[in-house]
Amino acid sequence: MPKPRPDPEALLKRLEWTVLRRLDGLLHGDYRTLLRGFGLDLADLREYQYHDDVRHIDWNVTARLQTPYVREFHEDREVTAWFLLDLSPSVDFGSVAKKRSVSEEFVAVLARMMTRHGNRVGALFYGDRLDTVIPARGGRRHVLELLHRLQSRPATTQSAATDLRDFLGSAFQAIKRRSLVFVVSDFISTPGWERPLAQLAERHEVLAVRLYDPLEMDIPDVGMLVIEDAETGEQLFVDTGDAAFRARFAAAATRREEELRAAFRQAGVDTLELVTGDDLVESLMRFTDLRRLRGRRGTGHPGRGLPRHLGAMRSAA
């Protein structure tokens, strides 16, 4: 019998005590080390240096002086954040905890962290299409309303594979003002979502929050098994005791990992991996360390900051 889900107030209180308090201690109250904002007020111009973000190049000044110049900004103190939540059937999978539960906890922590610093948060829900828009507001009560809407939403049933192109394209049309955008998804979708994600990143500061379960990478030897596609309902009878089958499964999963990382790099977005069963604080701090490293060096290294089991599998591959 499944455990009853806590109500939004109980969930938020638990996370405030177990996650937010720990983050406050580790970040020493400076949440901007985790959520690097974006500047809207031009502060200065300087010559381009290796590893500077090419999106900050001032092409007019560059053309006049025949030397690349970049803009420097003052960080905007008030940020509007949007959570683009993929609630398609595949996020209801999980060997330790459902990916959907991991998504809810992440949204609760980040939304509360931002609203208590005077920022506003909103959300867009996607089942088989963009069907819910929660306007951006501030305050703890608004976070509770967002969690209530998220928890009370029934599981999505659909007969076709998820298409994130439609979701990201609709989000681009819906979010007009430059914002901080969290795309929370397992990115199990038909191909073609890379370009809409890059287009979204051209207007907003975008973070891809990828939900992940270890069984999606390495299937164990449990004998004969019926595997069902959560998106389409298609079923397949397989022998997990067959070493050749498990090797093909692992190779296909590794290829998908490489394709995903290449897509995120091409779109120019940072990626936070949230793995079912992992500690949320550790995942957030691992991501924070990566962003600090990138801030010092001006670039990141693909594969750094990955969950332990993914890093080990990547090295083995």
Write the SSE topology.
Layout: H1 8-27, E1 39-47, H2 59-65, E2 69-75, E3 80-86, H3 99-115, E4 120-126, E5 130-137, H4 140-151, H5 164-174, E6 180-185, H6 194-203, E7 205-212, E8 224-228, E9 235-239, H7 243-267, E10 270-275, H8 280-297, H9 308-316
Parallel strand pairs: 3-4, 3-6, 6-7, 7-10
Antiparallel strand pairs: 1-2, 4-5, 8-9
Helix pairs in contact: 1-3, 3-4, 5-6, 6-7
Main features:
alpha/beta, Rossmann fold, two-stranded antiparallel sheet, 10 strands, globular
| Number of H- or I-type helical stretches | 9
Order of helices and strands: HEHEEHEEHHEHEEEHEHH
Shape: globular
Total domains: 2
Average pLDDT? 81
For the sheet with most strands, the description reads: 6 strands, mixed
Structure description:
The relative contact order is 0.13. The strands form three sheets. The protein has a six-stranded mixed beta sheet with strand order 5-4-3-6-7-10, sandwiched between helices. The protein folds into two domains: 8-38 and 78-215 and 250-316, 3-Layer(aba) Sandwich (Rossmann fold); 41-74, no CATH class. A hairpin with a 3-residue loop joins strand 4 and strand 5. The chain is 41% helix and 21% strand. Helix 1 (8-27) crosses helix 3 (99-115) and helix 5 packs parallel to helix 6. The protein has nine helices and ten strands.
How would you summarize this macromolecular structure in one to three sentences?
With 317 residues, the protein is α/β, with parallel strands linked by helices. It has helices at 8-27, 59-65, 99-115, 140-151, 164-174, 194-203, 243-267, 280-297, 308-316; strands at residues 39-47, 69-75, 80-86, 120-126, 130-137, 180-185, 205-212, 224-228, 235-239, 270-275.
